[in-house]
Amino acid sequence: ATKLTSEPVGRGSLTKSLPVPIPKATRLRVLVTGGAGFVGSHLVDRLMERGNIVIVADNFFTGRKENIMHHLQNPFFELIRHDVVEPMLVEVDQIYHLACPASPVHYKHNPVKTIKTSVMGTLNMLGLAKRVGARMLLTSTSEVYGDPLEHPQKESYWGNVNPIGVRSCYDEGKRVAETLCFDYHRQEGVDIRIARIFNTYGPRMALEDGRVVSNFVSQALRGEPLTVYGDGKQTRSFQYVDDLVAGLMALMDNENEIGPVNIGNPGEFTMLELAEVVKEVVDKNAKIEYKENTADDPGRRRPDITLAKKTLGWEPKVTLREGLPKMVEDFRERLNLGAAKASA
Ligand code: NAD
Ligand code: UDP
Ligand code: UDP
Q1: Average pLDDT, 10 consecutive residues per value, the chain (344 residues)
Q2: Which atom of ligand 1 lies nearest, measured to the CA of 63?
Q3: Which of 52, 65, 111, 340 is deepest in the core (most CB within 10 A)?
Q4: Which residue range or ranges hold the NAD(P)-binding domain (predicted)?
């Protein structure tokens, strides 16, 4: 009888020559860019809870270590100080690509860097996804609809965006990021997901973030007047962060829908109505101060979420009146204001 002398090729022979066999990855490995930020840190909490290996890459432009500090001792968590404008080598199964400043105050601060982050950052993450065969989800934005001429906004609407205005670095940056995703998908077969996120609020938003909900809440808590820009009749639809994170994970884990999908709460409020809700929750005697509005401010915005309901089985659960108190509690603690002061 002939004796088999040579080792079988491939993994079998390799593991035999090693003292310890290479374990097959049993946990899903997930990269979250921008994971130290507001939305990213809530997403990281959910991923860690469900037992994933989570790698956060963040340059800390607007993110904070405090947001993810509670995971630092966990061996399944890794934090990398990294700017997504630079290439990155890691081995993962999923990429949630959030890295990008989101508040107008932040993204207008260094517009060239903002557009580099969206374009080069997304290119790098798609190159990474292509190399390792990962699925990549882009957090795009309702800002791709610009100052919308259709209301509410459906995913099929192409938008009304000023290409050369002060908001363009963000809006057009995200539009190019979406284009890159679809071109990598069609040309290279990269597995992509695109979420178009509408205004989101909740605990851990930066106190000086500059967005309207965080501004009103900090102002009301500090006893300062609420700054309403323009006539306050412009509208937005506000989504609680837990609903957003559930929507992002539902989209990432869906085998059929790649998007773009609107993820937002259809409850629409004028800024004056929002100010009233903040007054109800924090201090009914708070004053309002009118300020000049910024350029190209969209007049109204409300998501049509038919697609998300139908394909992801997702819809938001938390109303503004339910979500706001949770954010107020967090802001009160971080502003060192102690227990709730009775709103007389
Ligand atoms: P955020 O500013 O709190 O978080 C952004 C994170 O990205 C921060 O941790 C920041 O340090 C990091 N970052 C920025 N530039 C980077 C770079 N070049 N390299 C590495 N990290 C970088 O904002 P957020 O509200 O948490 O937004 C997260 C994502 O969701 C963004 O992509 C934003 O465009 C999108 N989005 C958010 C909203 C919203 O209302 N929160 C709405 C639409 C879209
Ligand atoms: N890239 C990366 N990590 C990887 C693979 C690629 O950051 O693991 C970057 C790469 O440096 C490039 C971009 O992603 O800038 C696009 O990569 P791709 O392979 O599509 O294009 P090419 O490198 O051929 O220009
Ligand atoms: N806004 C306001 N007061 C503030 C900050 C913002 O009235 O202190 C208005 C702003 O003009 C816009 C809306 O609130 O019409 C939402 O602005 P935000 O910066 O939160 O997000 P955007 O949807 O513009 O990205």
Answers
A1: 45 54 78 98 98 98 97 98 98 98 95 98 98 98 97 97 97 98 98 98 94 97 97 98 98 98 98 97 96 95 98 98 97 81 40
A2: 9
A3: 52
A4: 31-327
Query: pTM of the full predicted structure?
Result: 0.93
In angstroms, the CA 168 to CA 172 distance is 5
Ligand located closest to 130 CA:
2
Strand pairing category for 235-237 and 268-270? antiparallel
Annotated catalytic residues are 170
Q: How buried is 74 (Cβ within 10 angstroms: 0-12 exposed, 13-18 middle, 19+ buried)? A: exposed
- Tokens 């809006």 map to which residue? 171
Eight-class DSSP state of 267: -
| Nearest ligand by distance to the CA of 92 | 2
Distance 211 CA to ligand 3 centre (A): 6
ipTM above 0.85, yes or no: yes
Distance from C-alpha of 262 to C-alpha of 270, rounded to nearest angstrom: 20
